[in-house]
Design a protein that fits this description.
Helix 7 packs parallel to helix 8. This protein has 2 domains: about 170 residues, Nucleotide-binding domain of ferredoxin-NADP reductase (FNR) module (Rossmann fold, 3-Layer(aba) Sandwich); about 120 residues, Elongation Factor Tu (Ef-tu), domain 3, CATH 2.40.30.10. It has 8 helices and 14 strands. Helix 7 links the parallel strand 13 and strand 14. By secondary structure, the chain is α/β, with parallel strands linked by helices. Helix content is about 25%, strand content about 25%. The two termini are about 35 Å apart.
C-alpha cells in the first residue's frame, strides 16, 4: 500500500530528471517558480503543529478535548440541558426514517428529555453504537440537526451491504434504540467569528456541513456568509436538496452550488466531476479576511480541492478537514511543515 506520508518515501532522482527533460521551457519556468515559492515557505516554517495536535487519529486538527455545549436559555428564558455526555452512552429511540437515496437514510432519534438539546456545538460529532449478539459495533457520526433542535437528534448514514453497524441500523424499526456519547471532537463553530465559511462536501459526507448550515440559519443574528459546494453522483444522492435549495433562495447569507456527475435534462444545477475546473469558479478569493474552509469528503477529492486552494493562495491554517487523514493530506499539498488549522473558527 502506498504511504500517505510522502517524506517517508525515497525519491527516484533518475526518473525525476528524466521526466523534467520532457517539459517545454515555459513549463519548466512555471514549475521552477512554484518550487521556489514552496521552498521559501517550508524553510520559513516551524513544525506547523500546535501542542496536542495530530495526536488523535480521528480528530487530528484539535488542540484540546471536545468542548460540550452545556445548559443554555432559549429566547423565552427556558433552560435546556444537554442530553449527551462525552464519557457515557445515552440511549436514543428511533422516531422517523427518511429514505434519501439508495443506501442513504436520514434517521431521527428522540432524546430522553424532550426539552433537552444534544450537547454538541455546531460541527462536532458523536460516537454511536449498536448491540448485535452481545457485541457492540461503533461508528463516529456528525448530527445533521442544529443544537437548537430540542428533544431530537438527526443522523445521516450511508448503509452498506456489509458491516454489522450498517446492517443493524438498516434493520431498525420505529421505537428501536441505539446509544450515543459525545461530543467526541470535530470543528467547534461559534456564531459571528467568521466573515465567510466555505464548505466543500460530497454525498453523505456532507452531514457536518448540513449541521453547520442549520445552526447558522436558525440564528438570524449570525452575520457569517456561507458558500457551500455540494457534489454527488446523482441529484438523488444530495442530502436535504429541497430544504437547502429553499434556504438558498430566501436567505442571502447562503450561496449554494449543487453539482452532479450524472443527471437527466430536468437537472438545473451544475454538472461535472469535482475537480479544479468546477471548484475554482465557486471559490471566493483568498482576501486575508477571517475565513475558514471546511472539507468533508474522501482523500482523492480532498487532494484535488487542496491543490485548487493552494493555487488560489489559500493558507493551510485556514483549512479544516473532517476525517482521520486530513493532516497528512494538508502536508502532501502544502509541505511537511505546513501550519495546521485548529478545531476553532479563528
Amino acid at each position: 500500500m502506498e504511504q500517505l506520508d510522502y517524506w517517508s518515501q525515497r525519491t527516484n532522482k533518475r526518473l525525476l530528471n528524466y521526466e523534467l527533460k520532457k517539459l517545454k521551457p515555459e513549463v519548466k519556468k512555471e514549475l521552477a517558480h512554484k518550487m521556489l515559492r514552496e521552498c521559501e515557505q517550508e524553510l520559513g516554517q516551524d513544525s506547523g503543529t500546535a501542542p496536542n495536535q495530530d495526536t488523535d487519529f480521528y480528530d487530528p486538527f484539535s488542540t484540546s478535548a471536545a468542548l460540550p455545549l452545556g445548559a443554555f436559555k432559549d429566547p423565552a428564558g427556558k433552560v435546556h440541558l444537554a442530553a449527551l455526555n462525552a464519557d457515557t452512552f445515552t440511549t436514543l429511540k428511533l422516531t422517523e426514517v427518511i429514505q434519501e437515496a439508495d443506501k442513504v437514510q436520514r434517521l431521527k432519534f428522540a432524546l430522553p428529555d424532550p426539552e433537552a438539546h444534544s450537547g454538541c456545538l455546531p460541527g462536532q460529532y458523536v460516537q454511536a453504537r449498536v448491540n448485535v449478539g452481545g457485541k457492540f459495533h461503533e461508528r463516529y457520526l456528525s448530527p445533521m440537526s442544529a443544537p437548537s433542535a430540542f428533544g431530537m437528534m438527526e443522523l445521516g448514514l450511508r448503509l452498506e451491504t456489509h458491516g454489522a453497524f450498517s446492517l443493524a441500523v438498516k434493520n431498525m424499526k420505529i421505537g428501536d434504540t441505539l446509544e450515543c456519547r459525545g461530543p467526541c471532537g470535530g470543528f467547534e463553530y461559534s456564531a459571528g467569528k467568521l466573515d465567510t465559511l466555505t464548505m466543500i462536501a460530497t454525498g453523505v459526507g456532507a452531514t457536518p456541513a448540513i449541521q453547520l448550515i442549520c445552526s447558522i440559519a436558525n440564528d438570524p443574528s449570525d452575520t457569517t456568509k456561507v458558500k457551500f459546494f455540494y457534489h454527488a453522483k446523482t441529484p438523488e444522492q444530495l442530502l436535504c436538496l429541497e430544504e437547502l435549495t429553499a434556504l438558498g433562495k430566501h436567505d442571502s447569507r447562503f450561496d449554494f452550488t449543487f453539482c452532479v456527475s450524472e443527471c437527466d435534462d430536468s437537472w438545473t444545477g451544475s454538472e461535472g466531476l469535482i475537480d479544479a475546473s468546477t471548484l475554482k469558479p465557486f471559490l471566493p478569493p483568498a482576501n486575508g479576511k477571517t475565513n475558514k474552509t471546511i472539507i468533508c469528503t474522501g482523500p482523492v477529492v480532498v487532494i484535488t480541492t487542496l491543490s485548487a486552494l493552494h493555487e488560489l493562495g489559500y493558507k493551510s491554517d485556514d483549512i479544516y478537514i473532517y476525517g482521520p487523514f486530513g493532516v497528512e493530506l494538508i502536508r502532501a499539498v502544502y509541505g511537511q511543515k505546513a501550519k495546521l488549522a485548529t478545531h476553532l473558527p479563528c
